């Protein structure tokens, strides 16, 4: 693989072509999980509840081309957003690039295999539920989407004291 092909090592997020931007996504599907915020402390909490359009097996959007029409609060990431938002998982390739970190060895760009993100246990496959069936989000708070897979699990996150609200979803 040439340096030109390893664009994630030579470019900034803002310099990526549309094709490179799409290829950078590892396909984990974790950004399509609902998030909650504590109304008092603004603490972010992850859930294992997926957007209704997420294919729970492939962890891909089932209607990517029409996602903004079908899910109005789906968000298209930009380099500026990647830098500012706090809800992308630590394993997210956009977040890693923004932080100047290398891609992990299981990333499909390095393995040449879109399944490698699932085989490494990084994606949501096998541990997420659709919002169609989940019921109240407050019953689905989990830590793992926010944990760095290269580090030991973090201690339990604080639970909401009052009714929490949804954080924005994205691509
Ligand atoms: S969390 Fe990041 S790498 Fe994973 S699917 Fe979402 S945008 Fe792609
Ligand atoms: S959050 Fe957006 S990209 Fe993800 S499954 Fe839902 S509509 Fe598709």
From TrEMBL:
Q: Where is the signal peptide?
A: none
Bias (Basic residues) occurs at 158-171
Cross-referenced InterPro entries? Puta_zinc/iron-chelating_dom, UCP006173
The identity of this protein, by name, is: UPF0260 protein N5W20_09175
Please, which domain of life does this record's source organism belong to? Bacteria
Family per record = Belongs to the UPF0260 family.
Q: For the region Disordered, what residue ranges are annotated?
A: 144-171
């Amino acid at each position: 693989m040439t340096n030109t092909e390893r664009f994630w090592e030579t470019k900034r997020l803002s310099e990526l072509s549309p094709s490179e931007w799409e290829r950078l996504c590892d396909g984990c599907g974790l950004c399509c999980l609902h998030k909650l915020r504590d109304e008092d402390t603004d603490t972010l909490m992850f859930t294992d509840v997926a957007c209704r359009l997420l294919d729970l097996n492939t962890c891909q959007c089932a209607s990517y081309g029409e996602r903004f029409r079908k899910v109005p609060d789906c968000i298209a990431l930009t380099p500026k957003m990647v830098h500012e938002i706090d809800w992308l998982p630590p394993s997210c390739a956009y977040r890693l690039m923004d932080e100047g970190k290398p891609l992990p060895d299981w990333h499909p760009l390095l393995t040449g295999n879109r399944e490698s993100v699932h085989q490494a246990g990084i994606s949501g496959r096998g541990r997420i539920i659709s919002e169609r069936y989940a019921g109240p989000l407050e019953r689905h708070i989990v830590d793992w989407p926010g944990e760095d897979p290269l580090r030991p699990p973090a201690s339990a996150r604080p639970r909401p004291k009052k009714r929490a609200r949804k954080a924005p979803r994205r691509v």
